[in-house]
Amino acid sequence: MTAIERFTRWFVWAMAGFTVVFLMTPLIVTVAVSFGSSTVFTLPPPDWSTRWYERLANMRGLLPALVVSLQVAAISTAAAMVLGTLCAIALVRGRFPGRETISTFLVSPLMLPGLVIGIAMLQGFKAMGLRDVYASLLVAHVVITLPYVVRTVVGALSLLDFSLIDAARTLGCSYPAALMRVLVPALAPAFLTSGMFAFLASMDNYPISIFFTDAWTKTLPIQMLQYVEERPDPTIAAISTGLVLLAIVALIIGDRLVGLRKLADF
Amino acid sequence: MSVRSAPSVWRDPVALLAAPAVLYLLVVYAFPLFWLLMKSFTGPAGPTVQPYVAFMADPFNWRVIGNTLRVAAWVTLVCFLIGYPAAFALARAGAFVQIVMLVSIILPLSIGAVVKAFAWQIVLRRDGVVSQLLLGLGIWDEPQRLLFTETGLVLGAANIFLPFMILPIYSVVKLIDPRLSEAGATLGATPLYRFAHVTLPLTLPGVVSGIAFVFSMSVSMFVIPSLLIGDRFQTLSTLTGRSFLLMRNEQLGSTTAVILLVLAVSIVVGSTWLARRMGGSTT
Q1: For a disulfide at B78, which of A62, A113, B158, B278, Cβ 3.0-4.6 Å?
Q2: Residue A136: which domain range?
């Protein structure tokens, strides 16, 4: 092995180690601060405590924001699953022109600046006469969640052998029963992972939600940013730790269902 | 596949299943974007480009555009320098290291920007982790605050967008047969020559999409600069947000939003075209 090769090898592994530490830093810092006793984010914390978690109960506006976020994420994900799955079937099974264009169009909200989409929706909804903040939030979040469902379900459907449905019908199943027994179980992992990531994307969205907010309707990220701006203290780290925990649970479920490597497919 | 031409949309009933989603997005997403575009070109007396002329005439706005592109370029460069070797390590690692790396890449992806940017506020403080580390290594003589500096912003943003550089490169590196490079070595090619003529060209499609992802996300990031650098440093995105949320200047906001949109769309279209061209040339 030449010197250059040895150096390259060393460099690649050094960068790999750095990447792991670098990427985990914000998460570890968040968790450490949330369990520290210090008010000023001293690291490592002088002493451990759960006082920031105890304070969560008294945070004004936290619970309503959490409820709004969970509701909006759940409803918009459910709606996106229905719309997205139907569309994915058409894209994979259909033989009509423009399928490529349609799938790019459906995934495009992921690629455009969220802030611009939010502003466009703010003005567009106003022009269409939709003024209710909560309804606007729901309508907007379906656009956020839909790309995740379409992308994953199209991927799963293109691997599916559709003659299985015909086989089930030959064996005496009615068409709906054949769909229920073949299509649904085959797509279940795709539904669950895409649903989870769509849900998380909706929970975490800031740049679109910010335009559909009033004194009564705030999502969690918006309420959190407001706390950060008003009075940053480790209570925010405690909320963040909750969200980290949610992501870890999602990742474990995703790993069990489709495997980590599959989740990393781009 | 039959040879005859594809039947029209109207004759393929399966196509109707796509209708609800497409109609929904047309109404609540495409129409608003189109409306924004139209409104930004409409003045009190009919069609106009006046807002754009006024925007470009102000030197402050050129500084804003400069800030946006400079920070995005730095973030992309940092992500590339870390992400390219990391993607190779990920593809070639043994099972355990691969799992550790995958978890550290995918887990942060499932956590919102507000959470991570808040964590970076803590990391970049005068007594934060970065400052302590550089002091410990003897690189700095005294603690310094990176929060509210451009360096701090680049560091935080690079951290948040790094997975979007690693994953596309990883997806092409894992397809490369390691024996290709060995074959080159057997034929007498030096390591540098092999990298430049075998490995690099094969990874270019992944590199292009990684760069496009990170660059366009850095151009349009909003929460991260708001938390890590504050109001004195404006980018197109923060200016757009501020003009709607704080200054209530919809005219300015629509103008910058359209510029941002055009920038993002051209990055996506340009990189897709480039990746497709390179994908074609390597096969």
Answers
A1: B158
A2: 60-219
Pairwise CA distance, residues B116 & B229, whole Å? 14
pLDDT tens-place string over residues B206-219: 999 999 999 999 99
Is residue A227 a part of any domain in this protein? no
Would you list the DSSP string of A6-41? Answer: HHHHHHHHHHHHHHHHHHHHHHHHHHHHHTBS-TT-
Q: pLDDT tens for residues B14-47?
A: 888 999 999 999 999 999 999 999 988 887 788 8
* Token pair recorded at residue A219: 């999502």
CB pairs under 8 A between A and B: 295
Cα separation of A257 and A189, whole Å? 6
Residue A244 lies in a domain: no
> Which residue among A15, A197, A224 places its CB closest to the CB of B89?
A15
pLDDT profile of chain A (266 residues), mean per 10: 83 93 95 87 81 87 94 97 94 88 91 94 93 95 95 90 88 87 87 91 94 91 92 90 94 87 77
Judged by CB atoms closer than 8 Å, whether chains meet at B17 and A86 is answered as yes
Domains of chain B as residue ranges with CATH: 12-48 (no CATH), 49-282 (1.10.3720.10)
Task: Residue A180: give its domain's CATH number.
Answer: 1.10.3720.10
Contacts of B89 in chain A (CB under 8 A): 12-13, 15-16, 19
The Cα-based distances of A49 to A35, A60, A227 in angstroms read 5, 22, 21
What confidence score (pLDDT) does residue B282 get? 43
Single-letter residue type at B98 = Q
Query: What's the complex ipTM?
Result: 0.90
Cβ–Cβ under 8 Å, residues A97 and B9: yes
pLDDT value at residue B281: 47
pTM of the predicted model as reported, rounded to 2 decimal places: 0.91
Q: Does a structural domain hold residue A211?
A: yes
- Hey, what are B172's tokens? 């092409």
Per DSSP, the three-state class of B184 is helix
Can you tell me the distance from the alpha carbon of A258 to that of A256, in angstroms, rounded to the nearest whole number?
Answer: 6
CA distance B25 to A143: 7
Q: Is residue A164 part of a domain?
A: yes
